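Example A, followed by Example B.
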Amino acid sequence: MNKTLIEQIGNTPLVKSMVLNTNPNVSLYFKLEGNNPGGSVKDRAAYSMIKNALDSGKINHKSKLIEATSGNTGIALAMIAGIFKLDIELVMPDSATKERVQTMKAYGAKVTLHSEGIEGSRDYAIAKVKNEGFYSFDQFANEDNWKAHYNTTGPEIWRDTRGEVTHFVSSMGTTGTIMGTSSFLKEQNKNIQIVGVQPTDGSSIPGIRKWPKEYLPKIFNASKVDRILEVSQDEAISMTRRLAKEEGIFAGMSSGGATTAALKLASELKSGVIVSIICDRGDRYLSSNLFE
């Protein structure tokens, strides 16, 4: 009782697939990260990055903060920066849904839209750090990103499956979720299979990337991922709609991508317990054509 908002981050529900998984010998569980206060898995990393930067003296209340984001990290950073009375500028692709932009502004952040996608947004933020004295959390290289999942997401999955998890499936963007969760789960049982999800060539799925080599997140360690499954944009859209209609899980397209991969995996296995990350909520995509 009497928990603060920050203390409500994490301990998200793990719910069993009742419809989409048709292999009776495999259990598929969805970890509902949209139940975090800011509506996505990124609350975990955002809190970890801000809290540790404050505690270590890297930033203070006079710092000018900036971060490039495709959406969810920005919302989480805006929410938590507001709680700590920090000023932050968030740079994102101009293709972002208006719900995302408006949510960040509601939390008090300055939002800058960039015409050259997430790569251009990252370059813009880096230039501000170099030339104008801004501080960037640089989620793509920040150890506190993946450590948030080592300290929370991984232990929750291990606890809630009573150590029976055999496969973990996660979309890959900054790769913080898969890096941290893999690190923890592999320490408990090295045989747990870690499956990353990427888009097929030419597919655009918000929150999932196949990075050009020069933009590959520095926190990414390929040895922590046992297998990568690729999903198409059409598959991700179709599965996102099915998640809502058939499982009652209202989520974004990256969750549809992860679910597509998890179901491919389930169809191959003779037995197992799969946990797949549902990254966020669907209400921040309503102005797009995702659910039309």
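Example B, a separate protein, is given below in the same form.
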Amino acid sequence: MNLRFLWISYLLTCLFTSQLALGRVAPPPLRVATYNLRMNTASDGPNAWPNRKEMVKDLVRYHHFDVFGTQEGFRDQLNDIAELRDYAFVGRGRDDGREAGEHSAIFYRKSRLQLLKTSDFWLSETPDKPGKGWDATCCNRICTWAQFKDLATKQEFYFFSVHFDHQGVVARRESGKLMVRKIAEIAGSAPVICTGDFNSTPDTEQIKAMQGPLRDARASSTTPPYGPVGTFQGFDLAAPLADRIDYIFVSPGSQVLTYGVLTDSLRGRYPSDHFPVVADVVLPTKTR
């Protein structure tokens, strides 16, 4: 029975692949997400990471993300999520370019995506080395990117995960300009997905800059957006959820089939102080 099942699965896979190549079936969408994990700090008390990590893993497993960017995670947090065996991650620590400090890591489902290339850059005047940028006073800020091959469609694309500064007004504005330049430099005409905590509302100059070469998944969704507008709640179940600061951007020509802000909670507690944002995306089959 197992051999028969495997044989049938193989035939169906071959049939799907051949029909996809002929353009007779729609390519399967990628389930894309961005998720600020909230760093691991004991000062969060009952909301500290050890009390949340299984909730985060369960959420990722249940919603079946294909690829997602994370922000704020320390290496131990990323290793915890990587206990989900179908996932691997890339990304370096923002403090030293190795493992120290928070990461803007990218997780991907190994059965769907093949990693081709990855690297990082810092949001500063010297993006090739660790350091603070412009008027940022607290932290180094880093962007991780990866080139993937979609094993279902054979298509290659680039994915970026980034975390903008929360204090520096100039730093956020200049980070938007830098992202636009670096995405063009790294990805060229290939399809792009960019996710992150931009610490910026849609009316800001930096978000408008991102919307030049890319498209906001919420505004582009062919179905009505699901969930609240706001993406940050600070672990407060009564938060007003008015401000959107976490985004998914996609290349022009992409189809955004769904977009949602996931408000999953368990026993009156959120898995993070941000909600994950998710979208089902079909990337353009031709370069722009």
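On Example B: The mean pLDDT is 92.
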